[in-house]
Amino acid sequence: MDELRHLWNTETVWLNTAQYGIPPATVRAALDAHLDSWAAATADPAHWWRGTGLARERLGSLLGVPAGDIALGAATSQMLGTVAASLPRTATVLVPEGEFASVLFPFLERGVRVRTAPLERLADAVGSGCDAVAFSVVHAATGAVAPVGDIVAAARGCGALVVGDATQAAGWLPLAATGFDVLVGTTYKWLMTPRGLAYAYVAPALGERMGSPGAGPAASADPGALFADRFVPAPGARRFDTSPNWMAHAAAVASLDVLLGVGVERVYAHDTGLADRFRARLGLGPGGSAIASVEVPGAHGLLARAGVVSTVRGGRTRVAFHLYNTVEDADRAAAALVG
């Protein structure tokens, strides 16, 4: 990724993308332009709306689906709340043990029955009486990649919905959203935008059966009909949109142009290659993930003293590699832990 190195100029070795990503220079330029026009009172909201459409198109390209099947919101929990609200209270939802709260809480709040199973045995736990299975494609704490194919096959065998959270996956892990009924995510990590933009792929057949409990003008067939006396849903997944975060949308267009220009397959090879290099220096086998979680006493502090930023999750130190990281970064982090 040497040809992209000029897009970042960090003051630390940032191995913390699983918490938030670092924007390329093109994103900063897009945000500066947005702020300048806003502050000068010269901005045209119609231009910002066009940015929303472009962000939807880029996200569709990333996930391999038509733009019309992408809904835009603010947070994964909000998007999943719409899914949970569509389930009857008698439904049973299967989730992995230790699942991230944004996936779990919307279903708990809905009051449905929630069953759990270890991630590696989740497919075996799908069965008769299961209405939906919901899981993170990549676990936020451990970096474990879910056995998506097995889970989807088991769910299809019993008619259960497949609901995935791609927050820690999209941007480095090649994904085909059409394998899911719903695939949600937020963009401020691997997609390198500010906070405040989330997305959801909603399979058309499912979307037709779901309500829009958070409906506002952005979800209507005519977003300009601000004083309409009845709600006419927009076609496709846009019926689940919330009021647009124009600034985050502008950033997403710029960041996704970088990712799509590189190609997710190349990003995958780069990110997992660095993570596995780091793991190998610690005597660990390949993880096949951009995220590595290690149990080394005092690792977080040792890394910090070496100028490497990491995070502690579940009592283990987590590092995460992305486009702006290098072989030198991986070696520096490993040397801080093993010498």
UniProtKB/TrEMBL annotation:
<dbReference type="InterPro" id="IPR015424">
    <property type="entry name" value="PyrdxlP-dep_Trfase"/>
</dbReference>
<dbReference type="InterPro" id="IPR015422">
    <property type="entry name" value="PyrdxlP-dep_Trfase_small"/>
</dbReference>
<dbReference type="InterPro" id="IPR015421">
    <property type="entry name" value="PyrdxlP-dep_Trfase_major"/>
</dbReference>
<dbReference type="InterPro" id="IPR000192">
    <property type="entry name" value="Aminotrans_V_dom"/>
</dbReference>
<feature type="domain" description="Aminotransferase class V">
    <location>
        <begin position="111"/>
        <end position="283"/>
    </location>
</feature>
<keyword id="KW-0456">Lyase</keyword>
<protein>
    <submittedName>
        <fullName>Selenocysteine lyase/Cysteine desulfurase</fullName>
    </submittedName>
</protein>
<dbReference type="Pfam" id="PF00266">
    <property type="entry name" value="Aminotran_5"/>
</dbReference>
<dbReference type="GO" id="GO:0016829">
    <property type="term" value="F:lyase activity"/>
</dbReference>
